Known about the structure:
- The chain starts with 7 loop residues before the first strand and ends with a helix.
- The longest helix has 21 residues, at 78-98.
- Helix content is 42%, strand content 15%.
- The protein is of the alpha/beta class.
- The protein is globular.
Amino acid sequence: MEILKSRILITGGKGFLGSHLLDKLREIGCKQVFSPSSQQYDLTKPNEISALFESYSPELVIHLAGIIGGIQANKSYPGEFFYKNALMGLELIENSRRFGVEKFVQIGTACSYPKKTEIPFREDDFWNGFPIEDTAYYGMAKKMLLVQLDAYRRQYGFNGVYLILTNLYGPRDNFDLSSGHVIPSLIRKFHEAKSKSKSTVEVWGRPEVSRDFLFVGDAVEAIVKSVKMYDSTEPLNIGSGVEVTMEQLTSAISDILEYDGAVEWNNSRPIGQPRRLLETQKAEEHLKFSPSVTLEEGLRSTVNWYLRNLPE
């Protein structure tokens, strides 16, 4: 697809990943990029989604918007997370079909993988069971959109692609301790502990729990490449290819922030899947994509952004 000449609609463009994607598209020369806010068009209301397509007539849709949060938020609002995420995606894909959109890029989540998936998670494992309960309803809502894209390709020849993103982090992330993900939450905790001369920092979970962390700029690069190079509803994992334990992560963040206190692990909090790492061979083959930012580099960039943007 010729991305530079396309009319592009980005949902969730005001969010963390979306803001970086908008910057990238404008940087490479895309002139017709639209990302209206949720105040302009509420994507949980089908009539407003139809009005959105009537107003912008997009040729390419990249769907990033969603109701998201950490494990505690997922556990507190499973119905809302399932219903609103499924509804938004279903209606956006249907309207894209009706309005003749040339290509639809759906951003999925590693939370959709089955609870007992072996490391590393391979795309062939995607349908081998139900996700872990802590984030299952968000994961299943996103998973249903892959089913829809496959059905629409079979019946209508609709061109939709599905990217399974791992845990993202980077500048502009959500540093709210009640709703943020692990890296921004830890950065804030360690910085506040240092500022207040606290001798310990409480970290939820266990030190051996692991994740696959991808810098937001690398995720954006993969999304742009998928527009240009990929035309299949077979899902693609987009990850770093590096498994990082919580102990390694907390050590790296405390070192960058020069915090010399101790970590107290709170094992009573939910941890999600004990281990998570995506197999990225297919993305390397189909997109010629591999991450360019190491965890050390990405963490330093994220910490520096956070320190520059602390509230007065």
